[in-house]
Amino acid sequence: MRVLVTGGAGFIGANFVRWTRAHRPEAQVVVLDALTYAGNRASLPGDVELVVGDVADAEVVDRLVAASDLVVHFAAESHNDNSLHDPSPFVRTNVVGTFTLLEAVRRHDVRLHHVSTDEVYGDLALDDPDRFRESTPYNPSSPYSATKAGSDLLVRAWVRSFGVRATISNCSNNYGGYQHVEKFIPRQITNLLDGGRPKLYGTGENVRDWIHVDDHNAAVWTIVDRGRLGETYMIGADGERSNREVVELLLELTGRPRDAYDLVSDRPGHDLRYAIDATRLRTELGWVPEYAHFEDGLAATVQWYRDNEAWWRPQKDATEAKYAQLGR
Ligand code: NAD
Ligand code: TDX
């Protein structure tokens, strides 16, 4: 099976390539990645075929899709804070890029799995007993989540109007190795490893539903194998924690007092809470997460950043300089 992985030099895509190597040795992987600031050749095994190109470039996409049996689409601009500063690459990559891919899979009748986010559903109140499920109406808050919502709707329309063979997954917040230091958990871990302090936006009460990246990628393969075409599957591992709880855990794991963090200015429009009900994935497709305890996965992730300073160090100063400009 020839598998085209878009965005395979990013956090989840590179872990997907590594997971595929370990569990699906028969798959021949080709990565298409533009190597933006978020893409890193060093995240991939050295012998993986990497085509450096843009998912919105119809010519390169057509050629690669024509030679594939399956496309798994991770390529995106992924950081909310960046989307508030300059939304234009988000529209181009997330919307036009997905459109470009859809036209190619339609032409060549190639199976597509579209990787999306729970952020398309907006946010929940802290005390809301409900969680996001496949039928929850779309209500995105940020330019990032609006462009991901747009890309999901394009996929749905191409399934219905043109019979494209596609599935969609909407996953909660991922953590693990190879995640860019701009994101919440790696930023705090690397601050701590540098002798600095974690930075919590606002009051730190916002809740995210954490899942280990390997559990996400195992779920993607489960959907590729057994998912019903045209369907959407929620992916989540019951990992709700407030940002403050995560920071307190990280402080504990690195031997600091639990209150040694800074509260910084809040993200505009900051979503309060995400929570996923993954019943369909569990009951219909039989998926079960391996990282049952967030605390264990987080400890392993701290160790990964301790062991891989050469990977994250080159991005750290520039990332913190960007945050300093935002007052965060
Ligand atoms: P990331 O920012 O780490 O990686 C994105 C990758 O896409 C990078 O390698 C980048 O170079 C590449 N890319 C960007 N623009 C491109 C373009 N025009 N053409 C080709 N490649 C391009 O993001 P991530 O966290 O790995 O997220 C991957 C996907 O998973 C995204 O679609 C995101 O919306 C989705 N997702 C992420 C999370 C999360 O917690 N990180 C949760 C749910 C869903
Ligand atoms: O320094 C920080 N301090 C802080 O309190 C940073 C960087 C973030 N935060 C907060 C904001 C969020 O409430 O932590 C939470 C997580 O922030 P991010 O890592 O930026 O993730 P989020 O905005 O929740 O989006 C992530 O999950 C869904 C991914 O970046 C998206 O790509 C994915 O779709």
Topology record:
Elements: E1 2-6, H1 11-23, E2 28-33, E3 49-52, H2 58-66, E4 70-73, H3 80-85, H4 88-108, E5 111-117, H5 143-162, E6 166-171, E7 174-175, H6 184-193, E8 199-201, E9 207-209, E10 211-212, H7 213-226, E11 232-235, E12 240-242, H8 243-253, E13 262-264, H9 279-285, H10 294-307, H11 309-326
Parallel strand pairs: 1-2, 1-4, 2-3, 4-5, 5-6, 6-11, 7-10, 8-13
Antiparallel strand pairs: 9-12
Helix pairs in contact: 1-7, 2-4, 4-5, 6-8
Write up what this structure looks like.
- The chain has about 325 residues and is an alpha/beta fold.
- It has a domain at about 1-175 and about 210-235: NAD(P)-binding Rossmann-like Domain (Rossmann fold, 3-Layer(aba) Sandwich), CATH 3.40.50.720.
- Helix content is about 45%, strand content about 15%.
- The chain has helices at about 10-25, 60-65, 80-85, 90-110, 145-160, 185-195, 215-225, 245-255, 280-285, 295-305, 310-325, and strands spanning about 1-5, 30-35, 50, 70-75, 110-115, 165-170, 175, 200, 205-210, 210, 230-235, 240, 260-265.
- The strands form 4 sheets. It has a 7-stranded parallel sheet, sandwiched between helices. It has a two-stranded parallel sheet with strand order 7-10.
- Nicotinamide-adenine-dinucleotide binds near residues 35, 116 and 117.
